[in-house]
Amino acid sequence: MKVIRSMVLVSVDQASLEHGAEAVFHEFLEQIEEFGLSDQIAVSTIRDVSVHEDVPLVIVYPDAAVYAPVKVEDVHTIVEEHLFKGNIVPSLLAMMHELVPEIAWMRERRGALPVQKRIVLERAGIIDPNSIEDYVLYDGFQALGKALTQMTPAEVIAEVEKSGLQGRGGAGFPTGRKWSFVASTPGSPKYVICNADESEPGTFKDRLIIEGDPFSIIEAMTITGYAIGSHDGYIYIRGEYPLAYRRIEHAIQQAEAYGLLGNNIFGTDFSFHVHPHAGAGAYICGEETALIESLEGKRGMPRARPPYPTTYGLFGKPTVVNNVETLANVPPILRNGAVWYREVGSPKSTGTKVYTILGNVNFTGLIEVPMGITLREVIDIYGKGMKDGKKLKLVQTGGSSGTIAPASLQDTPMDFDSFRNAGVSLGSGALLVCDEETCVVDLAKAILRFFRNECCGKCTPCRIGTLRLYEIVTQISEGTASLSDLELMMKISEAMSEVSNCGLGQTAPTALRDILKYFREEVEAHITDHICPVGVCPITMSSPELVPVA
Amino acid sequence: MAHITEEKEMDIVDLVTKAIEKHGATRDAVVPILSEINLALGYIPASALAEIRRHIHIPQEGVFLADSHLYSAASFYTLFSLKPIGRHVIRFCESAPCHVMGGHEVIQAIQDQLSLKPGETSADRKWSLLTTSCIGICGVGPVFVVDDDVYGNVTPERVPEILGRYQ
C-alpha cells in the first residue's frame, strides 16, 4: 500500500516562477526519485503565498518546515537531510518574521496529525463531556462571564462582526450581521435556535462537537441570547443522534445547577433558558424555516422567504438560527478577541473549518484546519493518500447538495471566496473522495435517489423534478436513455434551481449539473455505446455491433 | 381478546397522559409527544392521535387542533411509523458516502437473506427493513443500524453473522 508520509509544496506564484521555482520543483522530483522516496513523498505546488521576497518557498509537511528562498542547489540537501534522514535543515529555513499570517499558521501544524489548529474542537476528546468542572477548567464560561459583566450586547455583536465569522452551516452568511438584524428588529420575545439537525450526507461535525463539548454550545447560545435580547433558546437535534441529545440535556441540567444558565446568570439580571428538542427524521428540517415549522409541531415544510426568520421566525417572532459549528466559534472569539481570530485562516474567510474526509482514502474522519487548505493537502496529509494507490477522480464537497470538484481543482485553496470563484461550494464541510473506480452515473443515481426520498413535496418543481431526474439517470445507468434526455435533464435542473421554494430543490441538481460539466463523455458512453466505462452500472441493453473502423 | 384490546387502550391513555405531563399540552409539544409514543409502542396508533387531540384541542381557549393536523405531522417524519412494525428494525444508509464505499452490495445481501424489500415487514413480524438517510458515522461506512445497535465497516460477508445475533 502506498502511504504518503510527507509532502513537499513548492510556491509557484509569479514572483516564485521568476526566481526559478520551476527548476526547483523538477529538482525535487528528481532527487526524491534518486533517494527512492517516490512512493512515500508527494510533491506539489502552492499558489498565493503572499510573499514576494525570499521566494521560491518550499513547505514540507507534516513538519510544516518552511524553507525560503530555495535555490536548485539547496534541493539535494533538503531531500537528503529532511526527507531521507528526517532532520529539518535550520540553515535553509525561512525567516519567519517575513511571512504574512496566512503562512505563519502552518508552523502551528508542526508534527501535525491529524489536527493541530483547533478552535471549535479544542476540547473535544480531551475533557469529559459530562463534567461541567472539566469544561470550566478548560476556559469554559469565561467568554460568557466576560460578555455579561464587561460588555454591552452591542459590543458583543461588534466583536463577532469584527472577527469576520461566517455561518458554517453552508451558506456562509456573516454571523455578526445576522445577530444585529435580530437585535434591531422590534418584537418580543426573541428566540435563539441552534440548528443541530445535521442531515447532510457525509457530515458529522456537529454531532462530534455536541457529543465532545456540549457545554460550549450552551455557553454560545446564552451569549447569543444576551447579544440579541432573548431569554429562550431551542436546540433542535436530529432524531438520529440520541447520544448528542442526552449530552445536551445533561449539560443543561448541570449548567442550571451551577447558576450558569437559567435565572440571573452570574448574579446579573440576565436570564436565559435552553430547551432541547429532538427531531424525528427529516432531512428537510435542516432548512431553517422547515426547522421552525417542525419546532412548532407541524410537518417540517419550508416557509416562503422573505420574511426571513430574523424578522418572522419561531412563533412569528424575530429569531436567530445558527449552526452548531458557528456557535462553537463564538466563545473563543470573545475570550481571545476578534483580532486573534482573524489571524487564523485567510483574510476573507477567517478562522478554521471542520471537514469530514470520506470515501476512497486511507484514513477517514474529521479534521479542523485553517481556511485555505487545499484538497490535495487534505487527501495526502490527513487522508494519508488514496486507498490502494488508486487515482483521484473527483471530490464531492459539501454533502449531497454540494458540488463536484474534479481532480484538476485539487490545488484550489478551500475558503469561501476561492471556492466560489472556482464554482465549488464549501457547504457543510463533507469531502467525499472518489477514486477512478467510481462511476459518475452511479454516483448521480445515489445522490438523486436521496433527494427523491427527502423532498418534502411542498413545491412542484422539486417534487416532480427530483423524481424525473432520478428516473432519467436510472435509464442512463441501464443503457436505455437517449442523448436528448441529457438536454431534458439540464432543463429540469435549471427549472428546479430557479423556482424551487427552498435550498433542497435549488441544490438537488447541483452534483448532476457538475457531472455533466466535467464528465459528460462518460455519461454519453452509457447512452451511445451502452457501456459503463468503469463497469459499475447494470446496463441491460446489449451493445451495438462493433463496426470496424475504416 | 377483548380484555387485551382494553388493556392496550388503557396503555395508550396512560402513555399520552404521561407524555403530555412531560412535554406540555401545547402545539409545539406535538413532535416530542409523538416520539414518546412511537418509542414505547414501535408505532403510533390512530387512537393515540385522537387522545393527544383531546388534550390539546381546547376551543374555548382558542387552541384548535384536529386529528388531521396530528396525522399530517405523524406521517411526515421517517422515524415514526403509523402501522405496527417488526420486533427488530433494520435501517440501512443509502446515502452517497456509504454507497461509494460499497453500501449497495451490503443492502443487497440483507435483502437476499431476509427476502424483504425496503419498507417491508416479514410475515412473522421479526424484521422490518427500512432505509435511512445519513446517520452521521460516514467515517466507517457502509453502515446499518439494527434497533439501537450501529454496525460500521460492514461487508456482505458479515451480514449473516450480524443478523444472527437477533432472536
Sequence-ordered SSE layout with sheet pairings:
The complex is a heterodimer of chains A (550) and B (167).
Chain A: E1 6-11, H1 14-18, H2 21-34, E2 41-46, E3 58-61, E4 65-67, H3 72-85, H4 101-108, H5 132-137, H6 142-150, H7 153-163, H8 175-184, E5 191-196, H9 205-212, H10 214-228, E6 232-237, H11 242-257, E7 273-278, H12 288-295, E8 319-323, H13 324-336, H14 338-342, E9 345-346, E10 349-350, E11 352-359, E12 365-370, H15 375-382, E13 392-397, E14 403-406, H16 416-421, E15 430-435, H17 440-454, H18 460-478, H19 483-499, H20 503-507, H21 510-518, H22 520-529
Parallel strand pairs in A: 1-2, 5-6, 5-8, 6-7, 11-15
Antiparallel strand pairs in A: 1-3, 3-4, 9-10, 11-12, 13-14, 13-15
Helix pairs in contact in A: 2-3, 6-10, 6-13, 7-8, 7-10, 9-10, 9-11, 10-13, 17-18, 18-19, 19-21
Chain B: H1 2-23, H2 30-41, H3 46-56, H4 67-74, E1 88-93, H5 96-114, E2 127-132, E3 144-146, E4 149-151, H6 159-163
Parallel strand pairs in B: 1-2
Antiparallel strand pairs in B: 1-3, 3-4
Helix pairs in contact in B: 1-2, 1-3
Largest sheet of chain B: 4 strands, mixed
The amount of helix of chain A comes to 40-55%
Shape by Cα distribution of chain B: elongated
Poorly predicted residue ranges of chain B? 1-7
* Individual helix count of chain B: 6
**Cα-atom Rg of chain A, whole angstroms?**
25 Å
N- and C-termini, Cα separation of chain A: 44 Å
CA-based shape of chain A: globular
Overall residue-averaged pLDDT value of chain A: 88
**CATH topology term of the largest domain in chain A:** Rossmann fold
Please name the fourth-level CATH homologous superfamily of the largest domain in chain A: NADH-ubiquinone oxidoreductase 51kDa subunit
**Spatial arrangement of strands, main beta sheet of chain B:** 2-1-3-4
User: How many whole angstroms does the radius of gyration of chain B measure?
Assistant: 19 Å
Number of domains of chain B: 2
What is the ordering of alpha helices and beta strands of chain B?
Answer: HHHHEHEEEH
Q: What is the CATH fold-level name of the largest domain in chain B?
A: Glutaredoxin
Query: Largest chain-chain contact?
Result: A-B, 50 and 37 residues
